[in-house]
Amino acid sequence: MTALTIQLSGVSKHFAGIRALEGVDFACHSGSIHAILGENGAGKSTLIKIMSGVLQPDSGTMAINGAPVRFASPTEAAAAGIVCIFQELSLIPDLSVADNISLATPPRRFGLIDRRAQRRRAEELLARIKCEDVDPNATVRELSLSRRQMVEIAKALGKEPRVLILDEATSALTSRDVETVYHLLVELKEQNVASLFISHRMQEVKRLCDTLSVFRNGQHVETFARGARSDGEIVRLMVGREVDAQFPPKPERPRRPAHLSIRDLSWENRLNGVSLDIGKGEIVGLGGLDGQGQKELLLALFGVLRGLRGSVTLAGRPGAPASPAQAKTGAMRIALVPEDRKTEGLMLPMSIADNLLVGCYDRVSNGPFIDQARARQAVAEGIAKLGIKVGRPEDAVATLSGGNQQKVVIAKWLMTDPQVILLNDPTRGIDVGTKQELYRLMRELADEGKAILFYSTDYAELIGCCDRVAVMYGGAVIAELEGEAISEEAIVAASLNVDTRTAAHDAPVGAVAAAAVGA
Amino acid sequence: MNARPSPVLAGVRHNPGFAIALVLFGALYLVYNMMHPRGFSGAVLIQNVNESVAIVFLAMAQTVPVLMGGLDLSVGAIMTLTNCIASELVIGTPGQIAFGMAATLASGTAFGLMNGLIVVYGRLQPIIATLATGAIAMGLALFIRPKPGGRVDDDISWALTNDLYELVATYGWFDADAGWFQPVAWIPVPLIILVVIAFGVWLPFRRTVTGRTIYAIGSAEGAAFMSGLPIERAKIAAFTLAGFFASCGGLYLAIQTSSGNADITQAGAYTLNSIAAVVIGGTSLLGGVGGAIGSLVGALILRVISFYFRILSIDPLLQPLVEGVVLLTAVSLGVFRTLQVKNRLDLFR
Q1: Separation of alpha carbons A438 and A423, rounded Å
Q2: Is domain B16-335 in CATH 1.10.287, yes or no?
Q3: Does ipTM top 0.90?
Q4: Closest in A104, A105, A268 to B342, CB measured
Q5: How far apart are the first and last CA of chain B?
Q6: How many angstroms separate the CA atoms of A193 and B276, rounded?
Q7: What domains can be seen in chain A, in order of their start residue?
Q8: In chain B, where the domains are located
Q9: Exposure on the CB side of residue B342, measured as CA atoms within 13 A
Q10: What are B101-128's pLDDT values in tens digits?
Q11: pTM to 2 decimals?
């Protein structure tokens, strides 16, 4: 493929008076993997939406190899070879995987879609990213989030991109798929494709990208080669201020008696005898590879799943909640920050105030009527407690950045005064600054005596935040790590079902485990 | 993962409503024929098909906007309008008759196109836009035919509403008593018309990018846009196709009754029944799942139910009540699978 340079000059974009991008000069070149770093609201999403034709700049120009271009739609950008894998998936849930991969430009025979050729094409593309387990005839609705993301990548590959933009494309993936994507990007680099890579995971960026660009407040701060800046310097460039220790210190305290006790919990073929205790004031992490039953465990504890076997004891009383409505009220007081904040956590078109109140109407109502004064006060307290950056509480929650949206979800649940807090990967797709605020908040809540169960796909978070980490494998907890034993090697080893006792103490086994994930 | 299910099985799992409807129809029609004094005879079949053609076409018309997550409240009115047009034009020399039929179908299709243009470029909700254009279509129909009447060529009328034997005999294409012809001579012509149009128009359409885009819009419009699908073209095509199917219904109704009738009540009833047929046939009112063949079966189920009234001699005054209960029951069948969902969050995704 021929060399190619995309150059943006003086690009600005405003939304309702708010500056999203201001006079950005930016270039990326073929044969490179280029990371874009920045907090939420820094302008990364706006930048890639302009490059991929979703948005048009208010001013400034874009040029490919010096020739000015202007894309009116994603189709035009794709025709020019610029393909974006969006964070919000662009898949059609009710169509099959094969339909989705060849969605806009399917192979045709006599003018009609050639389904056999389309299926073959899907199989080829899926094989290229090692997803042979995905059935091209299955509808996308039937797939897990991580599989959907891989289908999304296959779809983008099918457009034969010259510039591939990945917006947090690895955040929903399993470790194995992440490795596959890494290999793919290196392969594409050799084929002279330019990759733009947006990620909040520093490790990933440092390993993969040769060029890094930092954005802050809608402006392009600096572009530099990998290794030219230390981690500390990069973080300072992103937040524009010194950041102290990323994780709050863990208090030394004896293990608490169990507040929530789970014994041999099973459901369908996804949970196979989970046993775990969580005490008040404890943060217990859930680790392991994606799809080992962590999400199902959280849903089970929140009363979403039917047909549970085994026992759950909460505050001395046996029995799991029968529904989310029961889980959040009465003696149980459980809160769940769900996997997908856009569909399960928030009602996007409704106001911030309405979203904050949905969980706790019983606390601000007199009989059937909502007490406006108490509701306003509760909203103000919720916003203040989490430091949510809002214009007015009456604005639609969709107008907030991802990090602030997640804060709304958490604030909503804190307003119900929960005793048990279940967190499903709450920092996914959130900027560094907000992540640190959430870590501090979790520790504060634990100090107040809440029992916290925290699932994260980011091992660093588990290590930094948790008093204990339960690693799940095949629908059961196969290892519990505590105190000094919580290390990346130990979690990885347990995730791969390597004997943890030897792995935690013997360096060679840790090295084997690291090699197994291709690190 | 184990061996992959066949595409057919995958289809049944994805849309069990269609499979249920098919089985239900088979059972209902079998029992009906067993109870009917002249069951399993050609005459009964012809009569039944004739009474089903219009609602089947309307159900197929309604399917296309519903798949997109919309509703077309004008299908009944378009049928009535084209019915009145046909009662003026489908008469005279063979050339005039052919022109009249073509003009009838073209006018209904054009009306559908207009619906599509209004929805896309007027940025109106389909349900409101078609409520208004439906009234316009009724007005035009009343203008063309203030009182019931008109005429349709007798030969066409006879030949297209009977079996193949009568079609051949009417036009004398060959000896209708020929031995080789007998195995197929009993097949009703309207059944052939239905099958040819349903499979000849819908199945190829479903395999175009436009057709797929209609499903994509109903399933996730944002994702469809981000994937660069031709959303506007698909919306216009959906309403145009609805207009075409509705005009097929109107034309056939004119041929069958040999007249035109701008009956407002009838137009409304047909529109509502078309929605019921679509739902019974397994198409989701939320869009994205289903198809016109399902609606064909759904419409047939509605019709078979009304046939039962005759043989069971139920008081006609009770008919709406019984129909409502049966409709509710049929639609509820699709709900059973939600009782088996173990992850209740899946119900809301």
Answers
A1: 11
A2: no
A3: no
A4: A268
A5: 24
A6: 52
A7: 5-239 (3.40.50.300), 258-333+418-486 (3.40.50.300), 345-417 (no CATH)
A8: 16-335
A9: 11
A10: 999 999 999 999 999 999 999 999 999 9
A11: 0.73
